[in-house]
Amino acid sequence: MSAQKRHAPSVFRFLVLHLAALTVFLVGYSHIALISMIVFYLIRYWGISVVYHRYFSHKSFSTSRTFQFILALIGTTSGQRGPLWWAAGHRKHHRYSDTEKDVHSPHNGSVFHSHLGWLLKEESLETDFELVKDFTKYPEIMWINKYHSLGIVLSFVFLFIFGSYLEVAFPSLGTTGWQMLVWGGVLSTLLCCHVVLGLNSINHIVGNKAYPTKDNSTNIWWMFPLMFGEHLHNNHHYFPSSHTAAFSNGEIDLMGGSIRMMEKLGLVTNVKKPTAEKYLGDRIDGNKDLLIKPIALN
Ligand SMILES: [Zn+2]
Ligand SMILES: [Zn+2]
User: Same domain, yes or no, for 62 and 10?
Assistant: First the structure.
């Protein structure tokens, strides 16, 4: 397949998504539409942060084969391709952070390239299965990696049907199928894409370092309302396999908290934590107030 043939659909998809977002001015506003956007943003972002990032990329916990597939399905609702595509690309990012082999480093090109431009290139759409060999033995994961559109399409269909039902059954809510589709579907997907892409761009440019990583990763506290823990990107680069990126007082990682909740429910096991000696001893910003009691560490 030629470079142009692969390149064009990617540009087209992003253009359509951004243009579709503008239809928000046509479909209008309702409280329920805003709530659907927040709820679906949380689902999609959790699917990326906990599922694609901490599980498939870093294996910061273990789980059963069945729940692994359910997690993968949740991840596909984000519209950010398949779990193995995402994990392979992210493993590469950690291996070559901010070097010339890091395809989305803002230190190797423009900020636009690091944020979105890299994704519009032909080679960026391929899954490097060599980097995710630990998951290629599962045919159902290979299947969902190929048919990754399933999750996002189902979420869009659900929102349209649900909105159409509310329009007839509860007209006082002031919503419609199209309105729910745009707010809960398009806007939440677009916001989730840009926030996740922001980890590659702004989280390697602005913010501060808590740990002496060789790359330019940073922590940005004011991104917490949208990233819920991923904003501690520099902490994460120092301890990539930890289930949480919050190590000291004042740091909050709700995504890590949700993993511990799943552990309590018996859904996941082998939740990884860094050692206190390492994460306090190496700290360079002076914040050495333990957040997790040493007894909880392994
Ligand atoms: Zn990074
Ligand atoms: Zn990572």
Answer: yes
